[in-house]
Amino acid sequence: MRERMEKLTKNISMLSETIEVIKKDMETDDITFLQNYEAILVRAECTPPDTAANAEMGPGAFIDMAKHVGCLTFKVWNSLIKIVDYNPVTMDPNTVSTKLILTDDLTTVTCCEVKQSLPDNPERFHVGVLGSEGFIEGKHFWDVEVGDSDNWSLGVAKESIVRKKLVKLDPESGLWTIRYINGKYRAGVKSRQEIKVDECPQVIRVCLDCDKGEVTFSDPTMSNTLYTFKHTFTKKLFPYFSIGSLKSPLRLCKRPLTKVTET
């Protein structure tokens, strides 16, 4: 389109110059005008390219509307994938405990020394915060940046979990979690099983497979599985986050969109 506009502008400029020259010729006396008549006639012959009635149009004479307009929404969305990422999980401010603070985008939770003044609604936790969306089928995963925090818990919780008092971090309470405290990683089971790691991960991946009945914790940078819970899930499960350290917050990692191949 830009090339055609430039060409059209050039043609208009040339035509304007020709008109001005002819006007000057017509202002001369009659004898001179008649003497130069044939030359003036030749200059006046101007057929704009591509617009003459008998002009033959070659390939590409028209804009390919189907290419540029067809499936426009899909094409724009697929192009934005290169620059757009998203959070597969966000945190629910209606469930956050009074000792935690969420950022405005609901992706980072920080521990605070002074209790926050929050409504005592039924959904609010005594300790921790839930994700804003629950899952009952399919496979889902989210990455959490734990950084240098020395006291945190991550996992999933059933929707009916007790929220107004301290509960044990084990499946009987409706929690499938791992915890890091006092320099050790432990699985949330009755025996508080210690998890051995060669190097402290900065990011923990939580993978919930509702169909297989598995909750897996891993280090995505090293592709190491830390611990796996197996259970038959029949109720909706929500991501669970808890932090008891002022050193570093828990931050949900963004994930790039997946490009779709057009068929």
Outline the fold blueprint.
Elements: H1 2-26, H2 30-35, H3 37-44, H4 65-69, H5 72-80, E1 85-86, E2 100-102, E3 108-111, E4 129-130, E5 139-145, E6 151-158, E7 175-181, E8 184-187, E9 194-195, E10 203-209, E11 214-219, E12 224-230, E13 237-243, E14 250-252, E15 255-256
Antiparallel strand pairs: 1-15, 2-3, 3-14, 4-13, 5-10, 5-14, 6-7, 6-13, 7-8, 8-9, 10-11, 11-12
Describe the 3D structure:
It is built from five helices and 15 strands. It has 263 residues and is of the alpha+beta class. The strands form three sheets. A seven-stranded antiparallel beta sheet has the order 2-3-14-5-10-11-12, with no helix packed on it. A six-stranded antiparallel beta sheet has the order 4-13-6-7-8-9, with no helix packed on it. Strands 1-15 form a two-stranded antiparallel sheet. A hairpin with a 5-residue loop joins strand 2 (100-102) and strand 3. The longest helix has 25 residues, at 2-26. The chain is rod-shaped, with a radius of gyration of 35 Å.
